[in-house]
Write a structure and sequence with these properties.
The structure holds three protein chains of three kinds.
Chain A lengths: L2 H32 L6 H19 L2 H22 L9 H23 L15 E4 L3 E4 H23 L1 H11 L1 H6 L4 H24 L9 H15 L4 H27 L4 H26 L9
Helix pairs in contact in A: 1-5, 1-8, 1-9, 1-10, 2-3, 2-4, 2-8, 2-9, 3-8, 5-6, 9-10, 9-11, 10-11
Chain B lengths: L3 E2 L24 E7 L6 H18 L4 E7 L4 H15 L3 E3 L4 H13 L3 E4 L5 H4 L7 E3 L6 H13 L3 E7 L2 H14 L2 E8 L7 H10 L3 E4 L4 H11 L7 E4 L5 H7 L7 E4 L8 H14 L5 H19 L5 H10 L10 E2 L5 E13 L2 E14 L10
Helix pairs in contact in B: 1-11, 2-3, 5-6, 8-9, 11-12
Chain C lengths: L3 H21 L3 H26 L8 H20 L16 H23 L4 H21 L9 E2 L14 H24 L1 H11 L1 H6 L4 H27 L1 E2 L6 H14 L6 H17 L6 H14 L3 H7 L8
Antiparallel strand pairs in C: 1-2
The chains are: A mainly alpha, B alpha/beta, C mainly alpha.
């Protein structure tokens, strides 16, 4: 493998990590503030992608579609927060897992009922189509580069929101002491609805962004959801910084693992066996990484308690 | 698991945990159990199989045929449970409908072992075509390797000298690459197994770019193929691509869009095959369901017509006579000529199709023949 | 209002009466459904020991369920093909004897649970949920891509395995075997819960610090509970494989882990018969809702949601009007 290809694969790993971060950020925010495990986060990702595909179909405008994905996921997020999720905050994790698992069943089949069983079309806009040549002669997809930039911008925005703004102050206060913040006259339930809607909007946005280069279909949320959980657990649940670090670690491990392992095994095995064994190990690699991190630090890399 | 009862009101009561036994005795009637994937991600294929099959039965006008449809949720254990239900309480004579090979492998051997016919409208795993062939197991679609072998032959014809090939890391993926290599015979620039259900192919595409390949063969069914094609189209690589029809069929073409245009893919059927049966099928399917039929719908339609043709000749209760009637394959197939080999899998032509845009609709048109009168290689191991 | 003990008796009686009726009414599929419920109940009883008594929310019990399934699949497929499993350094042959398969399934799942538990129990809370999920996923992807035993295609066993003196292919006889095993395990788990060990486990769940101060080795108690829990679920996996005469990697999928959890919550967490009631209810829902509509998952989801939100303590809790479980 040449150095140039290696650099390109590192870039790919980075970009995969950033896509995971978009999804994981909302998940970890919701856990950090409200202490809720939300399996239905994958459904919000799917809703974002479907809303974007529908709006892109009507208007032909990708940027309107992105806006639609944000709005649709935020509205649905706020709705389920008001009706279901807020009853779960003081329940144990087991009940949260089950209730949000039930939401997955409802959302998946409801989406299929509305949109049918066939995958939908959502494509990247012409302006972002094609490749750019990076220093060193690497040809890289412009759209993927855009995703990296959007992801980093979202990360920066979240840091600023939480560390510099009034809402962020309340969020941090809410994480630490719910009673205190309520006593100070902040309406905690409105704050929670807002945080949940924000997390949902991020999931919806990532669904739309990723949906443009993947398949927009029912059930698209679950594999990403599991990956996003791996990410936030590695990073330390509740920590935005941890989610970013975890996402990039998982992105790099997965991408480099699946390209390098067959090659490494090929040095001492016959080619077809090396491909099989290498690919098998590669598909397990991020879970091995996660188990390893938790054994070394049982609360994740940036976890507090 | 739900049952839509379509034709023939045989007075079957809704089955509950405590409901009584179903009356026996069909009196020359045929009862078919159709198990397919109707919920979740794989539902598009199952819906087309159901619709194609029911259209075939409806057009036959034979109201002695009753079809019970149930969902397998794409889970093998659910498929086995539904199959048990069909055999034990619905008392069906024939089973069909399963989309995915791993589910067919869970159901078909058990069904044939209990004296039922299993007629596969889609999956054709090697195990059931070779040593594990069974006199009551018929396959109307293809043995799994067929479309890949045709793609290999076509790649050779296109002059690929150094192909890059990839498929998911599961049995059907390995069979696909084996099938391709069997007829391609050229050198390989690379061979990759991707994770099942993988959605991001940036790393694989980078490897393709760096490999110096002169062509690509991929087998990535369903959503995986959609993701790969969209990402490949945006990568700036401009190598010829061939693949089996599974990533270019009517159920997903609309979702891939321009990224699929012009790609050559191989299949035993195409909506533009020029024969009366196929023209009528495509027209009536469009009229009935408002969309162009997919390859899965055509296979299910053929399966229905095969059963109708056999039912006209023999009573399904006379297993030997009915089996003979099935073997004769005396029906007008949408593919034109159709006959069974010794292992009761089709011997058929595989076409090369190109993805085109017809007005606003993406579809396929035939541009040549990949393999003629192809019989699968496992037939030799079958003792039938 | 009923006593929980009476509800338990009614559940057991129904589990016997429905298949018996079905047997005489010649409705074998009902027996198959009841067998499925009994096997899932057994898997749930296993998980309930860790989850209910010990408070260890394992989201990866599919690993033991699948391990039990593959113990059956591998042993029986070797017996079916007359190929020994290994010849060097000593000969191991396949078998189609159920008791031997159960023993292997129990031992293998217990060993696996020992390994996974020893590592996972260093974490707590959400981290524990997720690390157990990760181990389950590892096995899922491993079995899909490991070609020796069929990969994603799984393994078909054409004939059900043998139990001395019984015809296991007869639905009612196979049901009886599963039912007796369930009753035996329920009896043992009930004894275990009331033993000093069970009290220590529950004590560590209620208040870890107090348990530590009275000298309980919390880690070891939890690990032992986790191993027994995995072993029981492994046994259920072996029976499930025999019911279907088929094993596949889906037995390792996270959805199976989720379903086993659902049985417990539907029935009532930490109640001896919770998983039994939950599994039976789930199988019934699946069967009846499936007939209503193509989109029946929506109804299933709504019912689950309702149970979690408004029926704390599951159906047994609702029926006995007590939210806190009292064993027995």
């Amino acid at each position: 493998m040449t150095t140039l290809l290696l650099i390109e694969q590192v870039l790919n790993g980075l970009q995969f990590g950033v896509m995971l971060f978009l999804m994981a950020a909302g998940l970890t925010l919701i856990f950090g503030v409200m202490g809720l495990i939300n399996l239905a986060h994958g459904s919000l990702y799917m809703i974002g992608a479907f809303a974007a595909a529908a709006v892109a179909g009507w208007t032909g405008n990708f940027f309107l579609a992105l806006v639609a994905s944000l709005i649709a996921a935020a509205i649905i997020g706020a709705l389920i927060e008001l009706t279901v999720i807020r009853r779960l905050y003081d329940r144990d994790h087991l009940e949260q897992v089950l209730a949000t698992f039930a939401l997955i069943l409802i959302f998946s089949e409801a989406t299929r009922w509305v949109f049918g069983s066939f995958p939908l079309f959502l494509n990247i806009p012409d302006v972002l189509n094609g490749t750019v040549t990076l220093p060193g002669g690497i040809q890289y997809s412009l759209y993927r580069l855009t995703i990296i930039l959007i992801g980093l911008a979202v990360a920066a925005g979240l840091f600023l929101l939480i560390s510099k703004t009034r809402v962020g102050m309340r969020i941090r206060a809410g994480e630490n002491d719910r009673e205190m913040i309520a006593a100070l006259g902040v309406d905690i339930s409105v704050l929670y609805t807002m945080v949940f809607a924000l997390g949902a909007a991020l999931a919806g946005l990532s669904g739309a962004l990723v949906g443009a280069i993947q398949s927009v279909e029912v059930g698209m949320g679950e594999p990403v959801l599991i990956l996003a959980f791996v990410v936030i657990v590695i990073g330390g649940i509740g920590s935005i910084k941890g989610a970013l670090a975890g996402a990039i670690l998982v992105g790099l491990t997965d991408t480099l693992g699946r390209t390098m392992l067959p090659v490494i095994f090929g040095t001492f095995m016959e080619p077809s066996a090396a491909t099989t064994v290498g690919s098998a190990l590669a598909s397990m690699l991020i879970y091995i990484l996660m188990a390893g991190v938790l054994l070394y630090k049982p609360t994740g890399l940036f976890g507090s308690t | 698991m739900h049952a839509f009862r379509v034709l023939g009101a045989a007075g079957i009561m809704a089955l509950g945990l405590a409901s009584g036994a179903v009356a026996d005795g069909h009196g020359g009637k045929v009862k078919i159990g159709l198990i397919t994937t109707l919920t979740g991600g794989g539902a598009a294929l199952g819906v087309d199989i159901r619709d194609g099959f029911l259209l075939g039965i409806k057009q036959s006008g034979n109201d002695g045929i009753e079809v019970v449809v149930e969902d397998d949720q794409r889970k093998p254990d659910i498929a086995v449970q539904v199959a048990d239900k069909m055999i034990q309480s619905e008392k069906v004579d024939i089973m069909t409908g399963i989309v995915f090979s791993n589910l067919a492998l869970a159901v078909a051997p058990a069904a044939t072992a209990q004296g039922k016919f299993y007629i596969s409208p889609n999956a054709g795993p090697a195990q059931l075509a070779g040593k594990g062939c069974h006199e009551n197991y018929f396959n109307v679609a293809w043995q799994n390797d067929g479309p890949h072998e045709a793609a290999g032959a076509h790649a050779k014809k296109l002059g690929f000298k150094n192909a890059f090939i990839l498929a998911p890391n599961y049995p059907a993926g390995k069979d696909a690459l084996t099938g391709f290599k069997r007829t391609y015979e050229g050198a390989l620039a690379g061979e990759l197994f991707t994770k099942l259900g993988q959605t991001d192919y940036a790393a694989e595409i980078a490897q393709i770019r760096a490999s110096g390949a002169d062509g690509i063969f991929f087998f990535l069914p369903g959503g995986m193929g959609i993701s790969f094609l969209k990402q490949y189209a945006g990568s700036g690589i401009d190598l010829p691509v061939v693949g089996p029809a599974f990533s270019f069929d009517q159920t997903i073409l609309a979702a891939v869009g321009d990224a699929a245009l012009g790609i050559h893919n191989t299949a035993q059927w195409s909506p533009d095959i020029d024969n009366a049966a196929n023209k009528a099928f495509v027209e009536t399917f469009k009229a009935e369901y408002g969309r162009i039929p997919s390859i899965y719908a055509s296979q299910a339609f053929d399966t229905a017509n095969l059963i109708v043709s056999a039912a006209a000749k023999a009573d399904v209760k006379d297993t030997d006579a009915f089996r003979e009637a099935l073997r004769e394959a005396d029906f007008a197939s949408t593919r034109g000529d159709f006959r069974f080999g010794n292992n009761q899998h089709p011997i058929q032509d595989f076409y090369v199709r190109e993805v085109i845009k017809d007005g606003d609709v993406f579809t396929n048109k035939i541009i040549g023949i990949g393999l003629e009168d192809r019989q699968d290689v496992y037939a030799a191991e079958c003792k039938l | 209002m009923m006593r929980e003990r009476h509800i338990n008796m009614i559940i057991l009686a129904l589990l016997v009466l429905v298949p018996t009726y079905a047997h005489f009414a010649e409705e074998p599929f009902t027996i198959t459904l009841a067998t499925r419920a009994v096997i899932f109940a057994l898997a749930g009883v296993g998980l309930n020991l860790a989850l209910g008594q010990g408070g260890l929310v394992s989201f990866g019990h599919a690993a033991y369920f699948g391990m039990g399934g593959y113990a059956m699949g591998i042993l029986a497929s070797h017996a079916q093909n007359y190929e020994p499993i290994m010849e060097v350094p000593f000969l191991i042959e396949g078998t189609n004897s159920m008791p031997v398969i159960w023993l292997v399934a129990i031992v293998m799942s217990a060993l696996l649970a020992l390994l996974i538990g020893a590592l996972s129990l260093r974490t707590t809370g959400v981290y524990f949920i997720m690390v157990t999920l990760a181990f389950g996923q590892m096995f899922y992807y491993f079995t899909i891509s490991w070609p020796a035993y069929g990969g994603e295609d799984g393994l078909s066993i054409y004939v059900r395995n043998q139990f001395p003196g019984m015809n296991t292919l007869d639905p009612i006889q196979f049901f009886s075997i599963c039912f007796v095993l369930l009753c035996a395990v329920l009896f043992l788990v009930n004894r275990l819960n009331k033993s000093p060990f069970g009290l220590a486990l529950n004590g560590a769940h209620q208040n870890e610090e107090r348990a530590l101060t009275v000298g309980i080795n919390v880690y070891r108690v939890r690990l032992v509970a986790f191993v027994i829990s995995g072993a029981i679920t492994g046994l259920a996996g072996a029976l499930f494989a025999d019911l279907n005469r088929f094993v596949s990697p889906t037995m390792f999928s996270w959805q199976i882990s989720g379903e086993i959890m659902i049985f417990i919550i539907l029935g009532g967490v930490a109640r001896l018969f919770g998983p039994v009631a939950g599994a039976a209810l789930y199988i019934m829902l699946e069967h009846f809702l499936g007939g209503l509509s193509e989109y029946w998952f929506i109804y299933l989801g709504a019912i689950l949601l309702f149970v979690v939100l408004f029926a704390k303590g599951g159906i047994i809790g609702k029926l006995s009007r007590k939210e806190i479980s009292h064993d027995g």
